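Morning. Coffee machine broken again, so started the prediction first thing and wrote up yesterday's gels while waiting. Chain of 182 residues, entered below exactly as on the submission form.
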Amino acid sequence: MVPKKVFFTKGVGKHKNQLQSFELALRNAGIEKCNIVNVSSIVPPNCKIISREKGIQELKSGAITYCVMSRNNTSEPNRLIGSAIGVAVPRDRKHYGYISEHHSFGEVAQKAGDYAEDLAASMLATTLGLEFDPDKAWDERKQEYKMSGRFVRTQSVVQTAQGDKNGLWTTVLAAAVFLEEK
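Came back before lunch.
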């Protein structure tokens, strides 16, 4: 199976039971009805990125559904947690792209998203043979990648939350969900 489509989603859930907080995060993300199989980090060649709304409409209850997922949880009151997915897609759609996952504690959404996007872009850059200085700021490298003409898109999807003040389990997730062509 080589997926033809991918969409990005995120969710948060809180419950006294850890597993149920994860289930509620899946519901919030719109992917609770699937049997999730975690896979690694490749966007297949010619894989179309579609909207969350369109992707969720194509899901089938009980289907084995492949995704790259970042997941984090805590029962510590007020602790900031985050999950992020970054993606980098090459201009040449016959070449594969990358998805990265990042989960963090104490990191705001913008920082977590930038980090995940940077990871995916750096992996793609190395496979395309692009030279880059890993010590440069992400914003600077992002411009260099785009100016090379070999990247068409980088983005991230992030979910952050503070641990429930009463100690309920809080789960956050971000996912890239793969779909087959209908």
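Residues 5-179 form a domain with the Pyruvoyl-Dependent Histidine Decarboxylase; Chain B fold (CATH 3.50.20.10). Going to sketch it on the whiteboard this afternoon.
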